[in-house]
Amino acid sequence: MSKIYQLARNKFPQLLEALKSAGYRCIGPQVRDGAILFDDLESIDQLPAGRQDLQAPGEYRMQEIHSPRYFAWANGPQALKPYLFTPHEVLWKASRDNNVGIKFNEVEPDLQLLALIGVRACDLAALQLQDAHFQECDQPDPYYTKRREQLFLIAVNCTHPADTCFCVSTGDGPRVTTNYDLVLSELDESFLIAAGSERGAAILATLSTTDATPDAIETADTETDLAARRQTRSLPSRNLRDQLFANLHHPHWNDVAERCLSCGNCTSVCPTCFCYSENEQPAMDGNESRHVREWDSCFTHGHSYIHGFVVRPDTASRYRQWLIHKLGSWHDQYGRSGCVGCGRCISWCPTGIDITEEATAVCTVKDND
Amino acid sequence: MTNPHLPWEAEVVDKVDELPSVFTISLRISDQKIRDSYRFTPGQFNMIYLFGVGEVAISIVSDPGEGELLSHTIRAVGRVTNGLAKLQPGDRVGLRGPYGRGWPLAQAEGNDVLAITGGLGCAPSVSVINYIMKRRDDFGHLTIMQGVKHYHDLLWKDRYAQWAQHPDTRVLLAADVGGPLWPWHVGPVTVLFDEAHINPQSTVVIMCGPEGMMRAAVQNLLERGVEEYSIWLSMERNMQCAIKQCGHCQYGAKFVCSDGPVFSYPEVKQLFSIKCF
């Protein structure tokens, strides 16, 4: 592990200035519409100091706490996903050529160096899974790949897990271990900071840091350990593949379908869900058409449509598809579960369906019991 | 980096109306370099784009040795295919491909081939039947079993009659609903098995059509001693990207667009009996 430095709280704005000077557009967490959202960060004052999220199944609220800390919260509805695999992207444009031919033109995405501040361990684990899907494959997605190259990640070790968090159970948090440029641990009076890449080290070198004191390191470690111990939810195992596939006819799929609205909120907030639809947006004059991709969800009617027939016509088959893919088939496709334990699907489900409870119910009761 | 999403322009060279709602369009890729380097095997598919409307996955029915024309038999059923039905020679479309894994022609060489199709989903297997007909000496006995819902639905009636004239070739047809001029069987395609005289040791089965039909056919074949690994099926799922990204065609851990659409039965067996998967 690279050397840990300490940055006084009143010197923290230097980090933002250093990133800006290096040409990065800075994105950081802010309170918007009653939740923590990532948005352009002009000043450190925009960070959610003294704010905390209260999460429960089907519930997300902000509350004020007596603390100077900027990162005393777990997560908001977004992860890194919207910044790489964007909710809406023009893949190409087709234009009429002399009314007969068609020309196909690539669309260059609006690229800029992007620094994301406040990334969690679960988000980084999800990023690795999205990398595996979109760029470590036979035909890498050029849009994702180009954005990924521009990304600078400033991670923060988690000290305030939400009631919905279960990253310990998936093995993805709360401590940041890999895949970052800089990692922070927030203490009341200072930050611990370490580099995970050369460009991270270059930024770090410009800050007025001191060597981290053993006391500060111990306090930070204790806080993260405590955050791990405070998590109460868990999945029954890290590899549920065989158990899920052995229970394809389990009566519990119908039980969860009674509560599931098939709305797709879970797939939107999930940092690893990758499905997208391709749609056409023709111009009014009929001479040009944009071919766009937009996030899709396996909970929609159209997701499994084939020539006049829907393969998964009901909620039970759609929920089964989602859960068995996420916790089962993902192991075959990408070598691990598709769940990173962020708990977003639990909080943002309008009916409070809890993936850990549903997976446990399907895996622990015998088929047709 | 090449952009895998981008189609090429192709020209509609020929269009044949097969049935009131089924037509075949033959396309030629406009760019000569791309056209010359394009190779496919029967069972693979292209993404065909209709300007301003969208893309659709269509299997290739022409012969890989036929030169520069790529033929696609399409049933007008959705937004894109109804639009494609209005194309005329000279019109342009977008095309990218070929995608997926085709039929196991190397494994089938020297063996008997049993082609089972049902409904209107016969285009993928017609490509392989045509392929065998052109290279008749490379294969053993050929049996073509085709089931349709209604006797009106049989595509290529003349072609079946021609195929039946070939030596060592047998054509067995069945319609769920027969009619006055229907000389073949009435009932599901599976009623034909007793007549097929299948030699389980030397037969490679290729199959496409509705999954219910394929499930019944697989069961029947296994009871007759055909080995699981000799049974191949072409699967259908929603496909939008064709490059293993959009997620729609996932079947368990498989992406039908790239790992298939042709699968050996052991590859899909675990899920094949599961409805709505």
Q: Care to describe what's here?
A:
The complex is a heterodimer of chains A (369) and B (277). Chain A contains 13 helices and 16 strands. Chain A is an alpha+beta fold and 369 residues long. Chain A folds into 2 domains: 225 residues, no CATH class; 124 residues, no CATH class. In chain A, a hairpin with a 3-residue loop joins β6 and β7. Chain A starts with a strand and ends in a 5-residue tail after the last helix. Chain B has 277 residues and is of the alpha/beta class. In chain B, 22% of the residues lie in helices and 32% in strands. Classes of the chains: A alpha+beta (369), B alpha/beta (277). At the A-B interface, β6, β7, β13, β14 and β15 of A face β6 of B.
Brief account:
The complex is a heterodimer of chains A (369) and B (277). Chain A is of the alpha+beta class.
Task: Give keywords.
heterodimer, A: alpha+beta, 2 domains, four-stranded antiparallel beta sheet, 13 helices, 31% helix, 24% strand, globular, B: alpha/beta, Rossmann fold, seven-stranded mixed beta sheet, six-stranded antiparallel beta sheet
Fourth-tier CATH superfamily name of the largest domain in chain B = Nucleotide-binding domain of ferredoxin-NADP reductase (FNR) module
Domain module tally of chain B: 2
What is the radius of gyration of chain B?
A: 18 Å
Q: How many distinct helices of chain A?
A: 13
What strand line-up does the widest sheet of chain B have? 10-9-8-7-11-12-15
Helicity of chain B, in percent? 10-25%
The mean pLDDT of chain A is 95
Helix count of chain B equals: 8
Strand order of the largest sheet of chain A: 3-2-8-9-10-11-1-12
Could you tell me the number of beta strands of chain B? Answer: 15
Which spans of chain A have pLDDT < 50 for at least 5 consecutive residues? Answer: none
Give me the Rg of chain A, rounded: 22 Å
Structural class label of chain A: alpha+beta
The CATH topology of the largest domain in chain B is Rossmann fold
Largest interface: A-B, 57 and 42 residues
Q: What is the beta-strand fraction of chain B?
A: 25-35%
- Overall shape of chain A: globular
Main β-sheet description of chain B: 7 strands, mixed
End-to-end gap of chain A? 50 Å
